[in-house]
Amino acid sequence: MKIAEIAFSAYPITDVARARKFYEGVLGLKATQDQDMGEKGHWIEYDIASGTLSLGKYEGWKPTGDGCTVGLEVENFDEAVAAIQTSGTPIKMGPFETPVCHMLMVSDPDGNTVIIHKRKPGHH
């Protein structure tokens, strides 16, 4: 098997409206796909550059802050931190600086960890 690329990253959610308020309202993402399948579930996608962040509400798929996380690269780290702080979003860690970047770890409404990230010049 040869893996060509990461198709998408996904988080389980429990409340679609609440999740959209965070991802679209606080983070400013725009939904590129929204599939409401009624009792079977709900799937939302946000295309970000060459990647896709997905949210899904399905029985048996539960949120956890201990699972995989997504790092969202921002243009202006200080503005992003201020927006997060103003929104009342729970901060798990940071903001902090590493030799290659600045990061802030927050919790979405279901407790999934989201990293707000800004690379320093010269780092990919």
Summarize the entry for a quick read.
The chain has helices at residues 16-26, 77-87, and strands spanning 9-12, 33-36, 42-48, 51-57, 70-73, 91-97, 101-107, 113-119. The chain is of the alpha/beta class.
Strand order of the largest sheet: 1-4-3-2
Q: Tell how many strands the DSSP assignment holds.
A: 8
Helix fraction, binned, reads: 10-25%
Query: Structural class of the helices, strands and pairings?
Result: alpha/beta
The overall pLDDT average reads 93
Radius of gyration in whole Å, from Cα?
15 Å
> What is the rounded distance between the termini?
27 Å
**Percent of residues in beta strands?**
35-45%
What name does CATH use for the topology? 2,3-Dihydroxybiphenyl 1,2-Dioxygenase, domain 1
* Uncertain segments: none
Largest sheet: 4 strands, mixed
Shape: globular
CATH superfamily: 2,3-Dihydroxybiphenyl 1,2-Dioxygenase, domain 1
Please report the first level of CATH classification, the CATH class: Alpha Beta
SS field, number of helical segments: 2
Structural domains: how many: 1
Identify the CATH architecture.
Roll
Which sequence of SSEs, written as H and E, runs from N to C?
EHEEEEHEEE
InterPro entries: Anthracycline_SecMetBiosynth (IPR052164), Glyas_Bleomycin-R_OHBP_Dase (IPR029068), Glyas_Fos-R_dOase_dom (IPR004360), VOC_core (IPR037523)
Keywords: Dioxygenase, Oxidoreductase
Protein name: Glyoxalase/bleomycin resistance protein/dioxygenase
GO molecular function, one term: dioxygenase activity
